[in-house]
Specification:
Strand content of chain A: 5-15%
Number of strands of chain B: 2
Largest interface: A-B, 43 and 42 residues
Number of helices of chain A: 7
Structural class of chain B: mainly alpha
Helix content of chain B: 55-70%
Radius of gyration of chain B: 24 Å
Order of helices and strands of chain A: HHHEEHHEEHH
Bound molecules: protoporphyrin IX containing FE
CATH topology of the largest domain in chain B: Cytochrome Bc1 Complex, Chain C
Distance between the termini of chain B: 46 Å
Oligomer: heterodimer
Number of domains of chain B: 2
Number of helices of chain B: 15
Radius of gyration of chain A: 25 Å
Helix content of chain A: 40-55%
Distance between the termini of chain A: 29 Å
Largest sheet of chain B: 2 strands, antiparallel
Shape of chain B: globular
Chain lengths: 256, 406
């Protein structure tokens, strides 16, 4: 039995080793510390609010957030009134009783509006590239939040000898597009003025928007973690009890 | 205490005399089913597979209440489940990860059978039923993966259905017929949803046949020798409680993934809505198909690749006759045991090859491993059966247990 386990362990150790040997050409995405990771992970409400501000002021002109409704923003620590006021800043097209085009104020039940009427329009405005909807972006890319953070801060001068195409920008984390991305560098120091007075360094802004977008992708993360913890305590106790019950029942066989 | 029967007891007996439901269950997996007393923890996985099947059906039905099988709405409807349905995220993560755990459990269950020779006479039909269940599971999970209508759903479905076009003459018409059109589109999604709902219930029927076939000879055991009546114990309470304990351990691992790493077994691209105009650079199926995907791509000819891929599973049907040894358990077959683990490792490496682009070293390794896969069944298994001298078998389970205790 021991030999078998050793053999299996050797195989299991070999396979990932060979995988990483081949993956050498892919970019390495450094791991960051996030408050939401781990078993007890949580979102920092103030950080979520800052991230929302970044989304609204910087990203929303090009990227949608179509899975998120204004009512969801209460989870960021806003009151119902604040959310109502936030929604009312947006205008949505509708028809009046005569059938003519008018606009109405946004309601909490509305979703974030799309920045472009359709894909053609979006591409025409962005050099042929399509800015993806950001609702699920941290789950839709290898590397998740770490990737997003480093993508936003990964703009550099291209390495010597590399020619970057017209309208494209060098980004050392954008492996999918041969390190040339149609989105220009978006974040700079003091790009936003935070309502809570936090100093807006590029690094800080990138972290805030990353945390906000991870909330947008996984709004139930906190409930998931805490429910998981309670379920796990229950399961461990259940399993220990089942084990002793099993020992007790099987002990009857020896008495025979 | 009086010996009078209570009114409940009488009512129960009245009912049992007319429809012996409780006796039926008791005979099948209860106190009236005698099982060898030396079964180890690898025998827990049959029960676990049944448990996961029930879990998949229960979570699946709740998902189906909120899911919309339309190409313009499917992706968003899954997001509504994740965000707006009460505990929808839990139901969906249990269903998505449950499929992976179903395969983990089934793979252990199948390898258990191969190690202890459970496919040999008189259990061949039991083995067949198992393989048919496995095939039905593969079809179910494939169609389920299409339902969320992400990029991998769409392109995985395109690649896999396109395989059938390799069949000469009728290939193209078959693919059009499968799609219900000239590409993976709304009709494809609709029929996959209908079949994805149906097949698990077909699997239940197959499981009944599987257990029925199990009860004719009874369970095999780690020694692979016939169990004398004296070496058997009632399934209930001994194995029921052991299964409950095993279930606890299983659920701890399962819930750790569901609650804390729910997307670790999935592909990120399936969180991007399907787009027929954007082909992902690297299309990979779910991890549980990877070894077969590697076999498919190892062979340069499309038709032969498809034949090899299906053949790699169908070959299991004749395994009982390819294995020429009459000794069941690998415990007493030192040479076979070695090749068994080699085959197991070969399967893992094939899986890795399936996850890589089919070029360079992974392709070469994939070809060697594909060769070995078939070489194992067609040459190693029969020849080892003839050549090997097995270690002496114990006279009975009881005597071997005594020896171990000394
Ligand atoms: C043998 C049992 C089953 C297996 C192996 C299985 C497998 C799967 C898989 C792999 C997915 C994709 C999960 C994802 O990535 O989102 C899925 C989705 C789905 N399944 Fe099943 N399933 C089973 C039974 C059922 C049953 C019985 C039903 C309905 C009664 C059902 C309803 C659904 C629905 C509505 C979806 C789409 C929602 C989603 O993607 O999460 N499943 N299934």
């Amino acid at each position: 039995m021991k030999k078998i386990i050793l053999a299996a362990a050797a195989v299991l150790a070999l396979v990932p080793a060979s995988i990483s040997a081949f993956a050498a050409t892919e970019v390495h995405i450094p791991k960051e510390q996030w408050g939401f990771s781990g078993v007890f992970g949580k979102f920092d409400r103030m950080q979520l609010q800052r991230g929302l501000q970044v989304y609204k002021e910087v990203c929303a002109s090009c990227h949608g957030l179509k899975q998120v409704a204004f009512r969801n923003l209460e989870a960021l620590g806003y009151s119902e009134e604040q959310v109502k006021a936030f929604a009312a800043e947006y205008e949505f097209p509708t028809l009046d009783d005569e059938g003519s085009d008018i606009t109405r104020k946004g309601l909490t039940s509305d979703y974030f509006p799309k920045p472009y009427p359709n894909e053609k329009f979006a591409r025409a405005s962005n050099n042929g590239a399509l800015p993806p909807d950001l609702s699920l972006i941290t789950k839709a890319r290898e590397g998740g939040p770490d990737y997003l953070f480093h993508l936003l801060t990964g703009y550099e001068d291209p390495p010597q000898g590399m020619t970057v195409m017209d309208g494209m920008h060098y980004n050392k984390y954008f492996a999918d597009g041969n390190f040339q991305i149609a989105m220009a560098r978006q974040l700079n120091d003091d790009q936003v003025t935070y309502a809570d007075g936090t100093k807006a360094s590029t690094d800080q802004i990138a972290r805030d928007i990353t945390v906000f977008l991870h909330w947008a992708a996984e709004p139930n993360l906190e409930a998931r973690n805490s429910t998981g913890f309670r379920v796990m305590i229950y399961m461990v106790i259940f399993t220990i009890l089942a084990f002793f019950l099993k020992q007790r029942i099987w002990a009857r066989l020896e008495k025979k | 205490m009086s010996t009078e029967k209570s009114v409940w007891q009488k009512a129960f007996e009245w009912h049992e005399a007319r429809l012996p439901l409780v006796s039926f269950v008791d005979n099948a997996v209860g106190s009236k089913y005698p099982a060898p007393k030396n079964l180890n923890y690898f025998w827990n996985f049959g029960f676990l597979a049944g448990f996961v099947l029930v879990l998949m059906i229960m979570t699946g039905i709740v998902l189906a209440m909120n899911y919309v099988p339309h190409k313009d709405m499917a992706f968003d409807s899954v997001e509504r489940i994740m965000r707006d349905v009460n505990y929808g995220w839990l139901i969906r993560y249990m269903h998505a990860n449950g499929a992976s755990f179903f395969f983990i459990v089934i793979y252990i269950h199948i390898f258990r059978g191969m190690y202890y020779g459970s496919y040999k006479a008189p259990r061949e039909v039991l083995w067949w039923m198992g393989i048919i269940i496995y095939l039905a599971m593969m079809a179910t999970a494939f169609m389920g993966y299409v339902l969320p209508w992400g990029q991998m759903s769409f392109w995985g479905a395109t690649v896999i259905t396109n395989m059938f076009s390799a069949i000469p003459l009728i290939g193209e018409p078959i693919v059009t017929w499968l799609w219900g059109g000239f590409g993976v589109d709304n009709p494809t999604l609709n029929r996959f949803f209908a079949l994805h709902y149906l097949l698990p219930f077909v699997i239940i029927g197959l499981v009944v046949l599987h257990i029925w076939a199990l009860h004719i000879p009874g369970s095999n055991n780690p020694l692979g020798i016939e169990a004398a009546p004296a070496d058997k114990i009632p399934f209930h309470p001994y194995y029921t409680i052991k299964d409950v304990f095993g279930l606890g351990v299983f659920l701890i691992v399962f819930f750790a993934i569901v609650f804390w790493l729910p997307n670790s077994l999935g592909h990120p691209l399936n969180y991007v809505e399907a787009n027929p105009l954007v082909t992902p650079p690297h299309i990979v199926p779910e991890w549980y198909y990877l070894p077969f995907y590697a076999i498919l791509r190892a062979i340069p000819d499309k038709l032969l690749g498809v034949v090899a891929m299906f053949g790699s599973i169908l070959i299991l049907f004749v395994l009982p006759w390819l294995d020429t040894s009459r000794v069941r358990s690998a415990t007493f077959r030192p040479v076979f045991k070695l090749f068994f683990w080699l085959f197991f490792a070969n399967g893992l490496v094939l899986g890795w090859c399936g996850s890589q682009l089919a070029e360079g070293l992974p392709l070469i390794i994939g070809r060697i491993c594909t060769f070995w896969y078939f070489f194992h069944f067609f040459v190693i298994v029969p020849v080892v059966g003839w050549m090997e001298t097995p270690r002496p078998l114990p006279a009975s389970i009881g005597s071997s247990v005594l020896k171990a205790a000394e």
